[in-house]
Pyridine nucleotide-disulfide oxidoreductase, putative
Amino acid sequence: MTAPFLIIGAGQAGLKAAETLRHAGYDGDLVLIGDEPQLPYQRPPLSKAYLKGEMDDERLLLRPQAYFDTASIEVRAGTCAVRIDPAAHRVELADGSRLAYRRLLLATGTRARQLPIAGADRAGVLTLRTIADIAPIRAALDAVEDVAIIGGGYIGMEFAAVAADFGRRVTVIEARPRVLERSVAPQISAWFEALHRARGVRLALGTGVARILGDPAATGVELADGTIIPAGLVLVAVGAEPVTGLAAGAGLAVDDGIAVDACCRTAAPDIYAAGDCASFPSARYGRRLRLESVQNAVDQARAAAAAMVGDAVAYDPVPWFWSDQYDAKLQIAGLSTGYDRTEIDGDPDSGSFALAYYAGDRLLAVDAVNAPRAHMLARRTLAADAPASGPASLARAG
Ligand SMILES: Cc1cc2nc3c(=O)[nH]c(=O)nc-3n(C[C@H](O)[C@H](O)[C@H](O)COP(=O)(O)OP(=O)(O)OC[C@H]3O[C@@H](n4cnc5c(N)ncnc54)[C@H](O)[C@@H]3O)c2cc1C
């Protein structure tokens, strides 16, 4: 009997790889192993519509059970893989059983980074990554008046928007001098800071956190300068780290994420990786990248599946990403790292504009705020790597 194709990690990337394998005509056994109890689901709504109660569990799922039955994809939910034996082509599960594989894809994603400060283990100190995180967050949101969010990245700011809409007093604490600093220019940060302030959100910028107060439950956050921010709910949103333990335990190289080549192959025969957990060499950007986005999970999983059936193609995307805060949609195309100037078009005060990042004359990235057509045009322009058509035309397209 031929061993199955095995996918560890039943998230966005794992599911897309399974779907793609079937589309590509792979008709052997296909097993999708996930340690969460649900069928594969979308994470973005966890900090948006689902958190607000505007989306039910069924719509959160990426595919219904009927799909897996029809496509003959065996989903083993609630099953954790604990060890890989690359030489024997075998995976050990938490219950001690072993599964042979012909090809293995690691799509293990990321986990929320914890904060190593006093009080981080108090009740009411929460993170937001999985569907299991939502019930305690909703319960806390119902029970408290004051919410503190540590980290002004995308998840922190999206959560701030939801908590403010729920009528809570919200403070975002960010160590850097502005929110979203890691990925956008100061003008975009300023626009979102103003948006949040207009909704009553307080921003404590450029300040570290000393400790979380309260015992046994959180009552507040003490900042590095001694200021106390009252909070019965403290969301720790300080980024995510790739889940690489299985790969490292199997002797695979880890370089930020599980290191793969341009075709999603690790150095071990028949083992591939894709999605948030994988770092790959990008010829487009001249360096190794690890991306945390739906775009990357989907597109890299497609590339990994192609490689698994012997049709390897280099994966080298124009990354894109979105974030929803209140009624505002930010869409980012490209990577702005290394830009030396920006051009803004449209009037930020109108609520719809685009900001283009350049290195010399080369367009690197475009952030579009409530300008979806500008975003789509930017993606096409960047994919063609054509001479920039200029932010004016990009913004007008929005
Ligand atoms: C709250 C939130 C909001 C987001 N919003 C956006 C957005 O607006 N736009 C955007 O582009 N991206 C967004 N993202 C990011 C996007 O959801 C991720 O990039 C995407 O889910 C990555 O998919 P993945 O399959 O690589 O990893 P995951 O979706 O994390 O799936 C990995 C799965 O593998 C499982 N696993 C790990 N180890 C094992 C093991 N040993 N055995 C079995 N199973 C294992 C994990 O439990 C998990 O279920 C958001 C993420 C979060 C958390």
